[in-house]
Automatic annotation (TrEMBL):
PROSITE patterns in alphabetical order: ADH_IRON_1
Gene3D superfamilies xrefs: 3.40.50.1970, Dehydroquinate synthase-like - alpha domain (1.20.1090.10)
Segments forming domain Alcohol dehydrogenase iron-type/glycerol dehydrogenase GldA: 28-195
Keyword match Ligase: no
Occurrences of domain Fe-containing alcohol dehydrogenase-like C-terminal (ranges): 245-414
Pfam family name, one: ADH_Fe_C
Source lineage: Bacteria, Bacillati, Actinomycetota, Actinomycetes, Micromonosporales
SUPFAM superfamilies listed in its UniProt record: Dehydroquinate synthase-like (SSF56796)
Protein name: Alcohol dehydrogenase
UniProt keyword terms in alphabetical order: NAD, Oxidoreductase
Similarity comment: family membership: Belongs to the iron-containing alcohol dehydrogenase family.
Source organism (scientific name): Micromonospora echinospora (Micromonospora purpurea)
Record-listed E.C. numbers: 1.1.1.1
This protein's record includes keyword ATP-binding: no
An example molecular function term from Gene Ontology annotations: alcohol dehydrogenase (NAD+) activity
């Protein structure tokens, strides 16, 4: 079982930005970050076994950095079988052949190298290899019965944070929205984050994945705290807490100044390093807390428009912040995030300034301003609100009481490009 750290003692008065002083983190036992970290993979992988199933994005297979990685593993006397038949958006039935391959090969460890779809596919292959299908047996929270096949995760995009989180998301043809499997047992056994893998990422992928990482930081820092029952099984996501807060703030501090640079100067090694670190820290934050309104609304938006996940969450972020500012406690949290985002003194920060900076970042990296720009009509908004309400785990983490009316108001303003507390121009 992944390492779990819990603190459950109130530590003092006067810090109104903190939730009740309790916390839960579930993270890989080993996390390695930095240029060259991939060279440590043979040592990391062989701890778990010799027979390695590498689940890889197909476009990576012929790249020099991937071949170098596989050569290093084979030189360390590890047997490596490459599976690269990964379908975008991860339809659940596309995993059957991979699971059969893993079982026939008797894989002792799964090595995931790729973007969010590859990492999520690897999690589910490791799960279904251990316990069998069908996958829908595990939809929801805490339904994975025990440890899965050990998984080592190596992200090649900076955004999803899946290398450190307890969730995998798939598309199921029988359902209108993507579905998630959430369990502490899905946390990888190790995460190796080498920014070198991100250097060839196209600008649009950098933008959509990077803004999604910023959404992770914002939503984890503003997530509603959960009143934990320490005597029973804990929920997978426990809301904003004292252990997750530093990760969210550091993620914002890395992404704020460096994401636009990485988009416009893709070969800038410092920018790539900072954005990769921001993504990792964002994953470490929301893997404990969960996310909320941007994600709940993006799932139906993405299903209807076939647009990338990060584009949708990033588009919705200003409108969600605009709504949350009406809550004084959340406005204070947003101000703290803004201080990190811009590296300014807390006395100069405000929720309104945070909103303005997020709008500016979206403009700089090319995130569409409105839902109309991605093809949605006003007549579709009530359906999106209804579908958003079905994402009960996400909605429950919102720091405001969710309702159809509240979601519809956010969507209508996002359609028209109207902010109550600022401007998109």
């Amino acid at each position: 079982m992944p390492d779990e750290t819990v603190v459950a003692e109130s530590t003092g008065a006067g810090d109104d930005l903190r939730s009740a002083a309790v916390g839960t983190l579930r993270l890989p036992p080993r996390i390695h970050f930095g240029y060259g970290a991939r060279r440590h993979l043979p040592e990391v992988v062989r701890v778990h076994g010799r027979r390695v199933l590498a689940v890889v994005d197909p476009f990576l297979v012929r790249t020099p950095i991937f071949r170098e990685t596989v050569d290093a593993l084979t030189e360390a006397r590890l047997d490596v079988l490459v599976h690269s038949d990964i379908t975008p958006e991860l339809p659940v039935d596309t995993l059957d052949a991979a699971v059969a391959t893993a079982r026939d090969y008797r894989a002792e460890v799964v090595l995931a190298i790729g973007g969010g779809s590859a990492l999520d596919a690897a999690k589910l292959i490791a799960l279904l290899s251990a316990y069998g299908g069908p996958a829908h047996r595990y939809y929801g929270e805490n339904l994975v019965p025990g440890p899965i096949v050990p998984l080592v995760a190596v992200p090649t995009t900076a955004g999803t944070g899946s290398e450190v989180t307890p969730v995998a998301v798939v598309s199921d043809p029988g359902r209108e929205l993507k579905v998630g499997i959430s369990s502490p047992f899905l946390v990888p056994s190790a995460a190796v984050v080498d920014p070198e893998f991100t250097l060839g990422t196209p600008a649009t992928v950098t933008a959509w994945s990077g803004i999604d990482a910023l959404v992770h930081a914002v939503e984890s820092f503003t997530a509603r705290p959960v009143d934990l029952d320490w005597s029973g099984l804990l929920p997978v996501f426990t809301g904003r807490n004292v252990l997750s807060e530093p990760f969210a703030l550091q993620a914002a501090a890395r992404l704020g100044p460096w994401l636009p640079v990485a988009v416009h100067r893709p070969g800038d090694r410092q920018a790539r390093r900072e954005v990769a670190l921001g993504s990792l820290l964002g994953g470490m934050a929301f893997g404990a807390t969960g996310t909320h309104l941007c994600h709940a609304l993006q799932y139906p938006i993405g299903a209807l428009t076939k647009t990338p996940h990060g584009l949708g969450t990033g588009l919705m972020l200003p409108y969600v912040i605009d709504t949350l500012m009406a809550q004084p406690a959340v406005a204070a949290q947003l101000a703290a995030l803004g201080a990190a985002l811009e590296a300014i003194p807390a006395a100069d920060a405000s929720a309104a300034r945070t909103l303005a900076r997020v709008v500016e970042i979206n403009r700089e990296i090319g995130v569409p301003r409105t839902l109309a720009e991605i093809g949605l009509t006003r007549s579709q908004l009530p359906q999106i609100a209804e579908l958003g309400l079905r994402s009960t785990r996400l909605i429950a983490a919102a720091p405001v009481d969710p309702s159809r009316e509240l979601l519809l108001d956010i969507l209508e303003r996002a359609h028209d490009g109207a902010l109550a507390n600022g401007s998109l121009r």
